[in-house]
Amino acid sequence: MIRARPSVAVALAQAQGLVLADDVVARLALPVFDNSAMDGYAVRAEDVADATPERPVVLEVAEDIPAGRTDELTLQPNTAHRIMTGAPVPAGTTAVVPVEDTDGGAESVAIHRPRPVGAHIRRAGEDVAPGTTVLRKGQVVTPAVLGLAAALGMPELPVIPRQRVLVMSTGSELVSPGEPLLPGQIYESNSIMLAGAVRDAGAEVVAVATAEDDVAQFSSILDRYAADADLIITSGGVSAGAYEVVKDAFGRDGDQGVEFVKVAMQPGMPQGIGRVAGATIVTLPGNPVSALVSFEVFIRPALRRAMGLPDPERPHRPAVLAESLTSPRGKRQFRRALLNRSKDGVGTVTSYGPPASHHLRWLASANGLLDIPEDVVEVSEGTELQVWDLS
Protein backbone atom coordinates (compact mmCIF):
# COMPACT_ATOMS: atom_id res chain seq x y z
CA MET A 1 0.00 0.00 0.00
CA ILE A 2 3.02 2.33 0.06
CA ARG A 3 2.66 4.32 -3.13
CA ALA A 4 5.52 5.65 -5.23
CA ARG A 5 5.73 9.40 -5.55
CA PRO A 6 5.73 11.03 -9.00
CA SER A 7 9.15 11.47 -10.54
CA VAL A 8 10.86 14.86 -10.23
CA ALA A 9 13.99 16.55 -11.50
CA VAL A 10 16.36 17.35 -8.64
CA ALA A 11 19.71 19.10 -8.45
CA LEU A 12 22.70 16.78 -8.62
CA ALA A 13 23.59 17.47 -4.99
CA GLN A 14 20.24 16.01 -3.91
CA ALA A 15 20.16 13.04 -6.30
CA GLN A 16 22.67 10.65 -4.75
CA GLY A 17 21.15 7.37 -3.61
CA LEU A 18 17.92 7.90 -5.55
CA VAL A 19 16.79 5.92 -8.59
CA LEU A 20 16.62 7.38 -12.09
CA ALA A 21 13.05 7.74 -13.31
CA ASP A 22 14.02 7.96 -17.01
CA ASP A 23 16.87 7.19 -19.35
CA VAL A 24 19.46 9.95 -19.63
CA VAL A 25 20.69 10.88 -23.13
CA ALA A 26 23.90 12.87 -23.69
CA ARG A 27 23.42 16.21 -25.41
CA LEU A 28 27.14 16.75 -26.08
CA ALA A 29 30.34 14.80 -26.59
CA LEU A 30 32.84 13.63 -24.00
CA PRO A 31 35.52 14.76 -24.34
CA VAL A 32 33.94 17.96 -25.61
CA PHE A 33 37.01 18.70 -27.77
CA ASP A 34 40.30 17.04 -28.72
CA ASN A 35 42.59 17.52 -25.73
CA SER A 36 45.95 16.48 -24.40
CA ALA A 37 46.26 13.44 -22.15
CA MET A 38 49.68 14.54 -20.91
CA ASP A 39 51.73 17.56 -19.94
CA GLY A 40 54.06 17.93 -22.89
CA TYR A 41 54.29 19.33 -26.41
CA ALA A 42 51.79 19.28 -29.26
CA VAL A 43 53.61 18.35 -32.47
CA ARG A 44 53.16 16.89 -35.91
CA ALA A 45 54.24 13.24 -35.63
CA GLU A 46 56.20 13.41 -38.89
CA ASP A 47 58.28 16.31 -37.55
CA VAL A 48 59.68 14.19 -34.69
CA ALA A 49 59.80 10.79 -36.41
CA ASP A 50 63.63 10.71 -36.38
CA ALA A 51 64.12 11.91 -32.78
CA THR A 52 66.53 9.94 -30.57
CA PRO A 53 68.19 10.71 -27.23
CA GLU A 54 71.50 11.01 -29.05
CA ARG A 55 70.14 13.18 -31.87
CA PRO A 56 67.04 15.02 -30.57
CA VAL A 57 64.78 17.02 -32.86
CA VAL A 58 64.73 20.67 -31.78
CA LEU A 59 61.54 22.66 -32.46
CA GLU A 60 60.55 26.25 -31.76
CA VAL A 61 57.89 26.54 -29.02
CA ALA A 62 55.35 28.83 -30.63
CA GLU A 63 52.61 28.81 -27.98
CA ASP A 64 51.82 27.91 -24.38
CA ILE A 65 48.44 26.18 -23.99
CA PRO A 66 47.24 25.81 -20.39
CA ALA A 67 43.98 24.05 -19.62
CA GLY A 68 41.16 26.54 -20.04
CA ARG A 69 42.63 28.49 -22.95
CA THR A 70 39.70 29.20 -25.28
CA ASP A 71 41.14 30.76 -28.42
CA GLU A 72 41.59 28.51 -31.45
CA LEU A 73 45.19 27.84 -32.45
CA THR A 74 46.89 26.17 -35.42
CA LEU A 75 50.19 24.31 -35.17
CA GLN A 76 52.61 25.19 -37.96
CA PRO A 77 55.06 22.61 -39.39
CA ASN A 78 58.36 22.19 -37.50
CA THR A 79 57.05 23.99 -34.42
CA ALA A 80 55.66 22.79 -31.09
CA HIS A 81 53.13 24.13 -28.63
CA ARG A 82 53.79 23.51 -24.94
CA ILE A 83 50.53 22.02 -23.68
CA MET A 84 49.06 20.95 -20.35
CA THR A 85 46.84 17.96 -19.56
CA GLY A 86 43.24 18.66 -20.58
CA ALA A 87 44.08 21.63 -22.76
CA PRO A 88 42.67 21.75 -26.31
CA VAL A 89 45.14 20.54 -28.93
CA PRO A 90 45.67 23.04 -31.74
CA ALA A 91 44.57 22.28 -35.28
CA GLY A 92 47.27 20.39 -37.17
CA THR A 93 48.46 18.45 -34.13
CA THR A 94 48.87 14.70 -34.69
CA ALA A 95 50.64 13.72 -31.45
CA VAL A 96 51.61 14.94 -28.00
CA VAL A 97 55.11 14.25 -26.71
CA PRO A 98 55.22 13.89 -22.89
CA VAL A 99 57.49 16.41 -21.17
CA GLU A 100 59.53 13.48 -19.80
CA ASP A 101 60.70 12.76 -23.38
CA THR A 102 62.02 16.32 -23.86
CA ASP A 103 64.35 18.80 -22.23
CA GLY A 104 61.31 20.81 -21.06
CA GLY A 105 62.32 23.93 -22.91
CA ALA A 106 60.13 27.05 -23.05
CA GLU A 107 61.56 28.89 -26.08
CA SER A 108 62.62 25.80 -27.97
CA VAL A 109 62.32 22.14 -27.08
CA ALA A 110 64.54 19.15 -27.76
CA ILE A 111 62.42 16.06 -28.51
CA HIS A 112 64.24 12.85 -27.52
CA ARG A 113 61.73 10.23 -28.73
CA PRO A 114 59.24 9.99 -31.60
CA ARG A 115 55.52 9.55 -31.05
CA PRO A 116 53.06 7.87 -33.44
CA VAL A 117 50.04 9.64 -34.88
CA GLY A 118 47.34 10.01 -32.23
CA ALA A 119 49.66 9.54 -29.25
CA HIS A 120 48.34 11.09 -26.03
CA ILE A 121 45.43 12.86 -27.71
CA ARG A 122 41.94 12.35 -26.32
CA ARG A 123 39.57 12.67 -29.24
CA ALA A 124 36.25 14.47 -28.93
CA GLY A 125 33.42 11.98 -28.38
CA GLU A 126 35.63 8.95 -27.80
CA ASP A 127 33.98 8.45 -24.39
CA VAL A 128 30.46 9.65 -25.18
CA ALA A 129 28.94 10.61 -28.52
CA PRO A 130 26.00 13.06 -28.56
CA GLY A 131 22.69 11.19 -28.53
CA THR A 132 24.08 8.22 -26.58
CA THR A 133 21.94 6.84 -23.76
CA VAL A 134 24.47 6.99 -20.95
CA LEU A 135 22.26 6.18 -17.93
CA ARG A 136 19.26 3.90 -17.68
CA LYS A 137 15.92 4.18 -15.92
CA GLY A 138 16.08 2.27 -12.64
CA GLN A 139 19.78 2.94 -12.10
CA VAL A 140 20.81 4.15 -8.66
CA VAL A 141 22.53 7.53 -8.63
CA THR A 142 26.09 6.90 -7.42
CA PRO A 143 29.02 9.33 -7.17
CA ALA A 144 30.16 8.14 -10.62
CA VAL A 145 26.69 8.86 -12.04
CA LEU A 146 26.83 12.36 -10.55
CA GLY A 147 30.24 12.89 -12.10
CA LEU A 148 29.05 11.82 -15.54
CA ALA A 149 25.93 13.99 -15.38
CA ALA A 150 27.98 17.01 -14.32
CA ALA A 151 30.56 16.37 -17.06
CA LEU A 152 27.71 16.37 -19.58
CA GLY A 153 26.50 19.74 -18.29
CA MET A 154 23.34 18.42 -16.63
CA PRO A 155 22.36 20.41 -13.53
CA GLU A 156 19.51 18.01 -12.65
CA LEU A 157 18.53 14.36 -12.93
CA PRO A 158 15.03 12.80 -13.15
CA VAL A 159 14.54 10.61 -10.09
CA ILE A 160 11.96 8.82 -7.96
CA PRO A 161 11.81 10.93 -4.77
CA ARG A 162 12.43 9.55 -1.33
CA GLN A 163 9.36 8.48 0.61
CA ARG A 164 8.52 10.96 3.37
CA VAL A 165 7.83 9.23 6.66
CA LEU A 166 6.29 10.41 9.93
CA VAL A 167 7.40 8.29 12.91
CA MET A 168 5.29 8.34 16.09
CA SER A 169 5.66 6.55 19.40
CA THR A 170 2.78 6.34 21.85
CA GLY A 171 2.58 5.80 25.59
CA SER A 172 2.17 7.96 28.69
CA GLU A 173 5.07 6.10 30.30
CA LEU A 174 7.59 7.38 27.73
CA VAL A 175 10.27 9.95 28.61
CA SER A 176 12.88 11.44 26.30
CA PRO A 177 16.44 10.16 26.87
CA GLY A 178 18.35 12.49 29.17
CA GLU A 179 15.32 13.46 31.26
CA PRO A 180 14.91 12.12 34.82
CA LEU A 181 12.69 9.06 35.20
CA LEU A 182 9.82 8.85 37.67
CA PRO A 183 8.60 5.50 39.00
CA GLY A 184 6.79 3.63 36.23
CA GLN A 185 8.39 5.59 33.40
CA ILE A 186 10.79 4.34 30.70
CA TYR A 187 12.94 6.02 28.12
CA GLU A 188 11.40 6.32 24.68
CA SER A 189 13.50 4.37 22.16
CA ASN A 190 11.18 3.26 19.37
CA SER A 191 10.96 6.55 17.50
CA ILE A 192 14.72 7.09 17.21
CA MET A 193 15.16 3.42 16.32
CA LEU A 194 12.45 3.40 13.65
CA ALA A 195 13.56 6.76 12.24
CA GLY A 196 17.02 5.26 11.85
CA ALA A 197 15.52 2.23 10.10
CA VAL A 198 13.60 4.54 7.75
CA ARG A 199 16.77 6.39 6.78
CA ASP A 200 18.69 3.15 6.43
CA ALA A 201 16.02 1.99 3.98
CA GLY A 202 16.66 5.12 1.88
CA ALA A 203 13.62 7.19 2.87
CA GLU A 204 13.30 10.60 4.52
CA VAL A 205 11.97 11.27 8.03
CA VAL A 206 9.74 14.35 8.02
CA ALA A 207 9.10 14.31 11.77
CA VAL A 208 9.57 12.21 14.89
CA ALA A 209 6.98 12.61 17.64
CA THR A 210 5.77 11.02 20.86
CA ALA A 211 2.16 11.05 22.06
CA GLU A 212 0.76 10.14 25.44
CA ASP A 213 -2.20 7.79 25.71
CA ASP A 214 -4.47 10.66 24.78
CA VAL A 215 -6.52 10.54 21.59
CA ALA A 216 -6.72 14.33 21.27
CA GLN A 217 -2.94 14.74 21.54
CA PHE A 218 -2.33 11.85 19.14
CA SER A 219 -4.77 13.30 16.61
CA SER A 220 -3.24 16.77 16.95
CA ILE A 221 0.20 15.42 16.05
CA LEU A 222 -1.27 13.63 13.04
CA ASP A 223 -3.01 16.80 11.91
CA ARG A 224 0.27 18.71 12.19
CA TYR A 225 2.47 16.37 10.16
CA ALA A 226 0.39 13.91 8.14
CA ALA A 227 -0.11 16.21 5.15
CA ASP A 228 3.67 16.19 4.51
CA ALA A 229 4.01 12.41 4.81
CA ASP A 230 3.65 9.56 2.35
CA LEU A 231 3.86 7.02 5.16
CA ILE A 232 3.02 7.18 8.86
CA ILE A 233 4.56 4.64 11.24
CA THR A 234 3.27 4.38 14.79
CA SER A 235 4.47 2.12 17.56
CA GLY A 236 2.42 1.08 20.56
CA GLY A 237 -1.26 1.47 21.28
CA VAL A 238 -2.45 -1.48 19.16
CA SER A 239 -2.85 -4.31 21.66
CA ALA A 240 -5.98 -5.45 23.48
CA GLY A 241 -5.68 -3.34 26.64
CA ALA A 242 -7.76 -0.44 27.90
CA TYR A 243 -5.31 2.35 26.98
CA GLU A 244 -4.53 1.65 23.33
CA VAL A 245 -4.48 5.16 21.90
CA VAL A 246 -3.94 4.20 18.25
CA LYS A 247 -6.88 1.83 18.27
CA ASP A 248 -8.99 4.38 20.11
CA ALA A 249 -8.09 7.12 17.61
CA PHE A 250 -9.09 5.07 14.57
CA GLY A 251 -11.86 2.96 16.06
CA ARG A 252 -11.21 -0.48 17.45
CA ASP A 253 -13.37 -2.01 14.74
CA GLY A 254 -11.32 -0.40 11.98
CA ASP A 255 -14.16 1.90 10.95
CA GLN A 256 -11.91 4.93 10.32
CA GLY A 257 -9.60 3.71 7.59
CA VAL A 258 -7.27 1.51 9.65
CA GLU A 259 -7.62 -2.26 9.96
CA PHE A 260 -6.14 -3.90 13.06
CA VAL A 261 -5.10 -7.53 12.83
CA LYS A 262 -3.17 -10.23 14.64
CA VAL A 263 -0.34 -11.62 12.56
CA ALA A 264 0.85 -15.20 13.02
CA MET A 265 4.38 -14.03 13.78
CA GLN A 266 6.69 -13.77 16.78
CA PRO A 267 7.64 -11.12 17.69
CA GLY A 268 5.13 -8.66 16.28
CA MET A 269 1.62 -10.10 16.50
CA PRO A 270 -0.57 -6.93 16.76
CA GLN A 271 -0.42 -4.79 13.62
CA GLY A 272 -2.55 -2.34 11.69
CA ILE A 273 -2.64 -0.80 8.23
CA GLY A 274 -4.76 1.75 6.40
CA ARG A 275 -4.93 5.24 4.88
CA VAL A 276 -5.04 8.48 6.84
CA ALA A 277 -5.03 12.00 5.39
CA GLY A 278 -3.84 10.66 2.04
CA ALA A 279 -0.93 8.73 3.54
CA THR A 280 -0.44 5.06 4.23
CA ILE A 281 -0.31 4.28 7.94
CA VAL A 282 1.26 1.18 9.48
CA THR A 283 0.72 0.68 13.19
CA LEU A 284 3.36 -1.44 14.89
CA PRO A 285 3.43 -3.01 18.34
CA GLY A 286 5.16 -1.16 21.15
CA ASN A 287 7.79 -3.63 22.34
CA PRO A 288 11.01 -2.48 20.67
CA VAL A 289 12.08 -5.80 19.18
CA SER A 290 8.55 -6.37 17.86
CA ALA A 291 8.56 -2.90 16.31
CA LEU A 292 11.91 -3.24 14.54
CA VAL A 293 11.36 -6.83 13.36
CA SER A 294 7.92 -5.81 12.04
CA PHE A 295 9.57 -2.91 10.21
CA GLU A 296 12.05 -5.32 8.60
CA VAL A 297 9.34 -7.78 7.57
CA PHE A 298 6.56 -5.45 6.41
CA ILE A 299 7.81 -1.91 5.86
CA ARG A 300 11.40 -1.90 4.65
CA PRO A 301 10.74 -3.97 1.50
CA ALA A 302 7.66 -1.93 0.60
CA LEU A 303 9.48 1.37 1.17
CA ARG A 304 12.37 0.41 -1.07
CA ARG A 305 10.06 -0.90 -3.80
CA ALA A 306 8.13 2.39 -3.76
CA MET A 307 11.41 4.23 -4.35
CA GLY A 308 12.53 1.78 -7.04
CA LEU A 309 15.61 0.82 -5.02
CA PRO A 310 17.36 -2.48 -5.75
CA ASP A 311 17.30 -5.39 -3.33
CA PRO A 312 14.18 -4.34 -1.42
CA GLU A 313 14.47 -7.33 0.91
CA ARG A 314 17.38 -8.21 3.12
CA PRO A 315 19.53 -11.02 1.69
CA HIS A 316 18.20 -14.43 2.73
CA ARG A 317 21.13 -16.76 3.32
CA PRO A 318 21.05 -20.51 3.97
CA ALA A 319 22.76 -21.55 7.18
CA VAL A 320 23.04 -24.72 9.27
CA LEU A 321 21.68 -24.43 12.79
CA ALA A 322 24.38 -25.04 15.42
CA GLU A 323 21.89 -25.91 18.20
CA SER A 324 18.40 -27.30 18.71
CA LEU A 325 15.49 -24.88 19.12
CA THR A 326 11.77 -24.84 19.77
CA SER A 327 9.28 -22.45 18.18
CA PRO A 328 5.63 -21.65 18.97
CA ARG A 329 3.14 -23.64 16.97
CA GLY A 330 1.34 -21.70 14.26
CA LYS A 331 3.66 -18.69 14.32
CA ARG A 332 6.51 -17.71 12.02
CA GLN A 333 9.30 -16.93 14.44
CA PHE A 334 12.16 -14.51 13.86
CA ARG A 335 14.96 -15.20 16.35
CA ARG A 336 17.88 -12.85 16.79
CA ALA A 337 20.88 -14.66 15.36
CA LEU A 338 24.63 -14.71 14.84
CA LEU A 339 25.37 -15.76 11.29
CA ASN A 340 28.78 -17.18 10.42
CA ARG A 341 29.16 -17.08 6.66
CA SER A 342 30.98 -19.68 4.64
CA LYS A 343 32.82 -19.40 1.33
CA ASP A 344 30.57 -22.05 -0.20
CA GLY A 345 27.46 -20.00 0.62
CA VAL A 346 26.10 -22.16 3.46
CA GLY A 347 27.33 -20.95 6.83
CA THR A 348 26.30 -21.74 10.39
CA VAL A 349 23.90 -19.88 12.65
CA THR A 350 23.09 -19.76 16.34
CA SER A 351 20.22 -18.01 18.05
CA TYR A 352 21.27 -15.00 20.07
CA GLY A 353 19.54 -14.11 23.28
CA PRO A 354 16.01 -14.86 24.50
CA PRO A 355 13.13 -14.76 21.99
CA ALA A 356 10.95 -12.35 24.00
CA SER A 357 10.21 -9.01 22.35
CA HIS A 358 11.62 -6.74 25.08
CA HIS A 359 15.21 -8.03 24.85
CA LEU A 360 16.58 -5.20 22.74
CA ARG A 361 20.19 -5.70 23.82
CA TRP A 362 20.50 -8.87 21.78
CA LEU A 363 19.03 -7.37 18.63
CA ALA A 364 21.54 -4.51 18.81
CA SER A 365 24.41 -7.02 18.49
CA ALA A 366 22.79 -9.59 16.19
CA ASN A 367 23.76 -9.73 12.52
CA GLY A 368 20.77 -11.74 11.37
CA LEU A 369 17.20 -12.89 11.92
CA LEU A 370 16.69 -16.63 11.99
CA ASP A 371 13.49 -17.39 10.05
CA ILE A 372 11.64 -20.40 11.49
CA PRO A 373 8.48 -21.35 9.51
CA GLU A 374 5.12 -21.27 11.25
CA ASP A 375 4.54 -25.02 10.87
CA VAL A 376 7.79 -25.90 12.69
CA VAL A 377 7.73 -26.58 16.43
CA GLU A 378 11.12 -28.17 16.94
CA VAL A 379 14.31 -27.60 14.96
CA SER A 380 17.22 -29.99 15.35
CA GLU A 381 20.89 -29.08 15.30
CA GLY A 382 22.19 -29.45 11.77
CA THR A 383 18.96 -28.27 10.12
CA GLU A 384 19.40 -25.80 7.26
CA LEU A 385 17.32 -22.64 7.70
CA GLN A 386 17.10 -19.22 6.08
CA VAL A 387 18.67 -16.25 7.85
CA TRP A 388 17.88 -12.62 7.05
CA ASP A 389 21.28 -10.95 6.80
CA LEU A 390 21.18 -7.63 8.71
CA SER A 391 24.84 -6.75 8.24
Defining key terms:
391 residues; alpha/beta; Molybdopterin biosynthesis moea protein, domain 2; Molybdopterin biosynthesis moeA protein, domain 3; Molybdenum Cofactor Biosythetic Enzyme, Chain A; six-stranded mixed β-sheet; five-stranded mixed β-sheet; 7 helices; 32% strand; elongated
Structural summary, described in words:
- Belongs to the MoeA family.
- Keywords: Magnesium, Metal-binding, Molybdenum, Molybdenum cofactor biosynthesis, Transferase.
- It comes from Mycobacterium terramassiliense.
- This is Molybdopterin molybdenumtransferase.
- The protein is of the alpha/beta class.
- It folds into 4 domains: 8-28 and 133-160, Molybdopterin biosynthesis moea protein, domain 2 (Alpha-Beta Complex), CATH 3.90.105.10; 35-122, Molybdopterin biosynthesis moea protein, domain 3 (Molybdopterin biosynthesis moeA protein, domain 3, Beta Complex); 164-307, MoaB/Mog-like domain (Molybdenum Cofactor Biosythetic Enzyme, Chain A), CATH 3.40.980.10; 316-389, Beta-clip (Beta Barrel).
- It is built from 7 helices and 28 strands.
- The strands form 8 sheets. Strands 16-13-17-21-20-18 form a 6-stranded mixed beta sheet, with helices on both faces.
- A hairpin with a 6-residue loop joins strand 24 and strand 25.
- The model has no long low-confidence stretch (mean pLDDT 94).
